[in-house]
Design goal:
Elements (H helix, E strand, L loop, with lengths): L1 E5 L2 E6 L9 E2 L2 E2 L5 H15 L3 E3 L5 E3 L4 E8 L2 E9 L1 H5 L1 H6 L8
Antiparallel strand pairs: 1-2, 2-8, 3-4, 5-6, 6-7, 7-8
């Protein structure tokens, strides 16, 4: 798990696909799942609960009103879901949204 700060305040928590910790949204495991199943779950959840959806250029999906961004992470030969919990201002910012979890991003 990695935490990112903005002006000394927590702005993003990025969980690892393998080491987690595991978190659930309506019973669905957000860390370590199949990315296609994860995206379908978020689409279904948004349709059922009226959440706002946002796709990023790397085809990640976010429920912006919940602050959940579901990225994928390469783990050996597989890709698994990696959830990020992000403050609203960062999801609204194209730079932060497109570079989260900021590893290797230049400022």
């Amino acid at each position: 798990m990695k935490a990112f700060y903005d002006a000394g305040k927590l702005a993003c928590v990025a969980l690892d696909a393998v080491t987690g910790p595991q978190v659930f949204l309506s019973g669905f495991p957000l860390a370590g799942s199949d990315p296609e199943q994860g995206q379908q779950f978020l689409l279904d959840h948004a349709a059922e609960h009226g959440n706002c959806l946002l796709y990023t250029p790397d085809d990640s999906l976010s429920l912006t009103d919940l602050g959940v961004l579901l990225r994928s992470q390469q783990v050996g030969a597989a890709r698994l879901t990696r959830p990020l919990f992000v403050k609203e201002e960062w999801l609204e910012s194209q730079y932060f949204r497109d570079h989260l979890p900021l590893e290797g991003a230049s400022g």
